[in-house]
Amino acid sequence: MNKIISKEYLSAHVVKLEVEAPLIARARRAGHFVIVRVGEKGERIPLTIAGADIVRGTVTLIVQAVGVSTRKICALEVGQALTDIVGPLGQATHVTKIGTVVCAGGGVGTAPLMPIVEAFYEAGNRVVVVLAARTKELIILEEQMRAHSDEVIVMTDDGSYGTKGLVTNGVESIILREKVNLCITIGPAVMMKFVAELTRKYEVPTVASLNTIMVDGTGMCGACRVSVGGQTKFVCVDGPEFDAHQVNFDEILMRLRS
Questions:
Q1: φ, ψ dihedrals at 95, nearest 5°
Q2: Which long-range contacts (CB under 8 A, 24 or more apart) does 247-255 make?
Q3: What is the pLDDT of residue 69?
């Protein structure tokens, strides 16, 4: 059992939980994720580790209530516990000092982007963050992003906050004004597809963190398989990050719809 130490609503349906998990807190790196469960017969849900505190022995999870299992997790209060947490899983982000890094997050995809932004910033890169959502109320972690980056650009579909437009508009505005050495994108699959198409045009290396359906998290079930460069990869063990220009996003979107 992993006790919940703190709980905060980032928006109406997005909750940040700080959870006791000392071993995972010590071992995690940017890009890692965990699989959590509520109840002995509960569904196994993959969640990116949005942060960790080694001293407190806790990890931070950000959850959007979209289905039965995520609503159960979001309904937990301080002092209650997740049945179990397995991790850290997946491959950590390859962080190096490369120059200017653009980090583009859409909606709740901002959560897994947070530790990556921190890691590249601490490595001495110029980090520019593009946050995008449908409306102002859905923008999360803006203050934290500003504290760990050189610039934050906010895009909203309806223009209720920041600049009206899509995440691709924000990314392109940066590419047009300065040399970008790397783009990292996390969010809905369709968003990452169009970011990848944009950066391919400008020959900017791009990494996408994929959010496919996942069951066991150890590469055995094959539910998270994707095609990357014409080869089958498993997001849980080979990813979750891949060269976005090699990912078959149309296949991912088809499988997500099914």
A1: -110, 130
A2: 247/192, 247/196, 247/208, 247/210, 249/189, 249/190, 249/192, 249/193, 249/196, 250/193, 251/226, 251/227, 252/189, 252/210, 252/212, 252/226, 253/189, 253/190, 253/193, 255/212, 255/213
A3: 85
159 CB neighbour count, 10 Å cutoff: 12
Structure tokens at 44: 């196994």
pLDDT at residue 257, as a whole number: 78
In whole angstroms, give the CA distance from residue 240 to residue 236.
Answer: 6
Residue 212 has a pLDDT of 77
Structural domain includes residue 111: yes
DSSP assigned state of 194: H
CB 48 within 8 A of CB 90: no
Q: 81 lies in which domain range?
A: 2-89
Stretches where the chain sits below pLDDT 50 are: none
Whether residues 76 and 106 share a domain: the answer is no
Last residue of a domain, one of 65, 89, 113: 89
Residues 201 and 234 in one domain: yes
What CATH number does residue 59 fall under?
2.40.30.10
Write out the two tokens for 71. 């609503």
Residues 119 and 243 both lie in one domain? yes
Predicted local confidence at residue 172, as pLDDT: 96
Classify residue 94: in a domain, yes or no. no
**DSSP H or E stretch at residue 124:** none
* Structure confidence at residue 2 (pLDDT): 84
164: left (phi over 0), alpha (psi -120 to 50) or beta: beta
Q: Would you say residue 95 lies in a domain? A: no
End position of a domain, from candidates 89, 110, 143:
89
pTM of the predicted model as reported, rounded to 2 decimal places: 0.87
pLDDT value for 192: 93
Work out how many domains the chain is built from and give that number: 2
